[in-house]
Amino acid sequence: MELLMPANPDPDSKLPYLLRLPIDGGLVLRTAGTWPRTKALYCHPVPISEWPEHPEVVERVRLRSCARRGAAIDLILDRGRENRSQIVFTTARGRDMVFWQSPRTRKQARPKVSTPTARAAGIADLHIVVDSHERYPYRFTDQQVTTVKRALPCGDYGLLREDTLIASVERKSLPDLVSSLTSGKLRYALAELAALPRAAVVVEDRYSAIYALDRVRPAVVADGLAELQIRWPNVPLVFCETRALAEQWTYRYLAAAHIWADVDTAAPASGAPADNDTPAEAPAPSTSEVRAWARGQGFPVPDRGRLRPEVWDAYTAAHPEL
């Protein structure tokens, strides 16, 4: 069995892909994406006759399982990551609707709020630079924003003045936040952000989600984040519950930074902090960070107390930039 996803040949459709499932004689859906990575995807059932004779296949993956369970179809793909999802048939506002969701998107918070569309700080058009390495960037479709992709020295979304980065926001999902914290990469990212006049880190989840982690001790993550905020208090870590709210916060933060750059004549042209002409260097790793890294590598380490010299030696060997 295979999961086939070709491009939708209908130019008038707002759903750019087709999805065919080997169930009930062949179920064909129009869908908004190729996989529900950041949010549940809206789908629209169509007759099997709409399946093109010569489909332009975008994605083809072997299926381990495709089974209907009540009002949902469970899919298990034959690959290591992003292999489980579910097609859900439901009713909303009196209409039959179909959504394609993954375990990650199903667990996302539902704050039951609508984000405002009013212009931030009255700016008619805000120009935001998106880092070229950002795989699934914010589109800011509900705001008055013009985006351009190029490589940024730090952060994922930034403001430029005369080709100088004056403000930047680093976006993190919760798994990425935990991974970069335990590996030590987050420390260096904050050190680079701290060298800017304005910078922040936005997390697409609740702070309480830290304490529901099962592969890393929650206390290690909480202590590590607290220590980073003490060392770099000018780079706030903001938890925004959902991706949509994190996108909204990023837009309004950069809009405020845009206004600040216009009115604050003391902002340095070089992009360095006003009270410091040299970039902030990353200090030596803390014991808690090394302890978390060692556990991830399989080293037996105690919950408290000093670490053995060989653990520090292994950490140093794995991080030659130190």
TrEMBL record:
Coiled coil: none annotated. Keywords: DNA-binding. One of its GO terms (biological process) is DNA metabolic process. SMART domains: ERCC4 (SM00891). Residues 127-207 form the ERCC4 domain. The keyword Cell membrane does not apply. InterPro entries: E3-bd_dom_sf, ERCC4_domain, Lsr2_DNA-bd, Restrct_endonuc-II-like. Residues 268-303 are annotated as: Disordered. GO terms for molecular function: acyltransferase activity; DNA binding; nuclease activity. The keyword Metal-binding does not apply. Gene3D superfamilies: 3.40.50.10130, E3-binding domain. This is ERCC4 domain-containing protein.
